[in-house]
């Protein structure tokens, strides 16, 4: 199709849409109806597109209704108004929904399906294993509380000033990592997408309140800023960020929080493009679990090459990562949006890794304090 | 007394059709336990119960939206009949079906047509769902922004980093054409 034809088609489709959605002036409408009578191709297009828009609309209505149903289900089960076990979140539902769809998808395209938001972990679920996790978290909270009480007593002794932050129960978690020592982190958009409260937790279990300062659903990148008086700036991160694409088969590793403790994973780059040829991401072979969303993917030099964001169902260790050049873009977008912010202005991604030549265990030791669990509710 | 129940139910259906949370919540809380009991008594799990109940709610939702729902029975009876039919089908599919379902006391109505119609729509829904997910980014988010979130081309251009609305429109056109192609290639197979 040549450019002129394409332009004509774009204009025509735009007109059809406005016609179907009744967004035309009466004059325009009259003219368009005339055209429809004269040109059977146009008429055919209107019929077909109306059908399609109807289906699209119904899809949207159903989806919204399903969302309502799930919210209500969770709400009622938490309140004990229905007998269903509580704590089963929407994510799990999406996962279930996909099981059904996967069969269709696989039969159409011969490709196994992808759970895009499938690897945000759930902190509170109902299986015995997870009850164990909840227990562990309670102990955590208790320990933290007594720590805080100690601190309060100290503070009282010293000055009498106390800072109290209320405990917030977080329900889902992912991973994030520091991009700047002043407390800026990057994670996946889908981790924080529906969050009301966000906190990040370091390896020692210390929790800091954070704010989402940037989100981009198209690249699945979000930037968080720690806004907590208890947070002390860190030394500059030891790892670098690279815009260069990594070679196929090059070894990579990741660090993340699929559970309370940090977990190391090792693999290799298996394709330079992501799911269905998506050029924003790349494909890696690595074990990815719920909670790994937002984990950094490093090459052997300790350079960040991407952010882990999805895994493929029914396909072993196939996972996908957003390429790190998108982090550069995200940061410049953020700067553009708030040009007067002097802290932001000075943030630059470190491009020189100080981990070159080190053994993986040494690299990990230096990196792990810069990886945080991202907790949302 | 009877009239007021009828009125109440009509009000609930109207709310349901408009995706009104309060109405959905009332219907949900009044009927969920009944259907969960049915599923649990007939070799299902609580997850099955949730799926089946929500699917029955979808059938009721469509029925309410179509506007020609004659309230020949109570919402409870309708939901129960649909859920029962859906669960029987599911048991049949997974070869877990042995005899008739173990329930006697509840009144039922014939809902076979509604359930069949729903299954056709559900197949279409799945198709649209997979089609949209096959698109990849940024197409998926772009089309969702325009068709589902009703964002203007100007807003989309800003959100997705296109230089102007015209460029965004061209991109949207390409994405839409791809989506239609994927969708209709499956649709015609039906």
Automatic annotation (TrEMBL), chain B:
Keywords tagged on the record: DNA-binding, Sigma factor, Transcription, Transcription regulation
Domain of life: Bacteria
InterPro entries hit by this protein: RNA_pol_sigma-70-like, RNA_pol_sigma-70_dom, RNA_pol_sigma70_r2, RNA_pol_sigma_r2, RNA_pol_sigma_r3/r4-like, WH-like_DNA-bd_sf
Keyword Transcription: yes
Organism of provenance: Niabella digestorum
Protein name (Swiss-Prot/TrEMBL): Sigma-70 family RNA polymerase sigma factor
Gene3D superfamilies: 1.10.1740.10, Winged helix-like DNA-binding domain superfamily/Winged helix DNA-binding domain
Membership in a protein family: Belongs to the sigma-70 factor family. ECF subfamily.
SUPFAM superfamilies for this protein: Sigma2 domain of RNA polymerase sigma factors, Sigma3 and sigma4 domains of RNA polymerase sigma factors
Keyword DNA-binding: yes
Pfam families assigned: Sigma70_r2
Domain annotation RNA polymerase sigma-70 region: ranges: 27-95
């Amino acid at each position: 199709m040549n450019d002129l034809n394409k332009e004509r088609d774009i204009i025509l489709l735009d007109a059809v849409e406005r016609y179907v959605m009744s967004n035309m002036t009466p004059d325009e409408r009259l003219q368009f109806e005339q055209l429809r009578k004269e040109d059977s191709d146009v008429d055919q297009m209107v019929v077909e597109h109306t059908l399609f828009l109807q289906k699209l609309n119904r899809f949207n209505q159903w989806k919204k209704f399903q969302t309502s149903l799930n919210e209500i289900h969770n709400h009622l089960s938490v309140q004990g108004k229905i007998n269903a076990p509580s704590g089963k979140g929407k994510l799990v539902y999406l996962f279930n929904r996909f099981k059904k769809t996967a069969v269709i998808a696989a039969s159409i395209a011969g490709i196994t399906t992808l759970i895009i938001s499938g690897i945000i972990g759930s902190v509170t679920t109902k299986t015995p294993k997870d009850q164990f996790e909840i227990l562990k978290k309670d102990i955590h909270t208790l320990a933290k509380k007594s720590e805080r009480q100690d601190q309060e007593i100290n503070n009282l002794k010293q000055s009498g000033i106390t800072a109290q932050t209320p405990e917030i129960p977080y329900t889902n978690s992912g991973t994030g990592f520091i991009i700047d020592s002043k407390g800026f982190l990057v994670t996946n958009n889908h981790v924080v997408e529906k969050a009301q409260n966000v906190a990040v937790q370091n390896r020692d279990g210390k929790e800091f309140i954070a704010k989402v300062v940037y989100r981009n659903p198209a690249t699945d990148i979000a930037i968080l800023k720690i806004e907590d008086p208890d947070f002390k700036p860190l030394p500059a991160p030891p790892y670098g960020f690279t815009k260069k694409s990594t070679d196929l088969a090059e070894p990579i590793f990741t660090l993340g929080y699929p559970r309370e403790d940090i977990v190391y994973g090792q693999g290799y780059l298996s394709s330079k493009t992501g799911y269905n040829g998506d050029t924003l991401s790349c494909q890696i072979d690595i074990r990815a679990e719920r909670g790994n969303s937002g984990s950094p993917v490093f090459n052997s030099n300790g350079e960040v090459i991407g952010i882990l964001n999805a895994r493929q169902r029914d396909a072993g260790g196939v996972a996908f990562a957003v390429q790190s050049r998108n982090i550069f873009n995200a940061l410049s977008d953020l700067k553009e949006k708030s040009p007067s912010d002097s802290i932001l202005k000075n943030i630059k991604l470190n491009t020189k890794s100080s981990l070159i030549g080190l053994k993986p265990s040494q690299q990990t030791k230096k990196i792990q304090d810069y990886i945080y669990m991202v907790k949302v509710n | 007394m009877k009239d007021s129940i009828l009125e109440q139910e009509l009000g609930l259906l109207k709310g349901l059709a408009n995706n009104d949370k309060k109405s959905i919540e009332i219907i949900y809380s009044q009927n969920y336990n009944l259907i969960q009991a049915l599923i649990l008594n007939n070799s299902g799990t609580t997850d099955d119960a949730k799926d089946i109940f929500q699917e029955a709610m979808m059938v009721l939702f469509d029925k309410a939206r179509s506007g020609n729902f004659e309230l020949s029975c109570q919402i409870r009876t309708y939901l129960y009949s649909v859920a029962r039919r859906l669960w029987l089908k599911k048991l049949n599919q997974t070869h877990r079906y042995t005899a008739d379902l173990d329930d006697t006391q509840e009144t039922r109505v014939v809902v076979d047509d509604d359930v069949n119609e729903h299954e056709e729509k559900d197949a279409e829904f799945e198709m649209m769902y997979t089609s949209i997910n096959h698109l990849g980014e940024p197409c998926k988010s772009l089309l969702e922004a325009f068709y589902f979130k009703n964002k203007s081309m100007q807003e989309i251009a800003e959100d997705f980093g296109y230089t102007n609305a015209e460029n965004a429109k061209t991109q949207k056109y390409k994405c839409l054409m791809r989506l239609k192609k994927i969708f209709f290639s499956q649709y015609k197979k039906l």
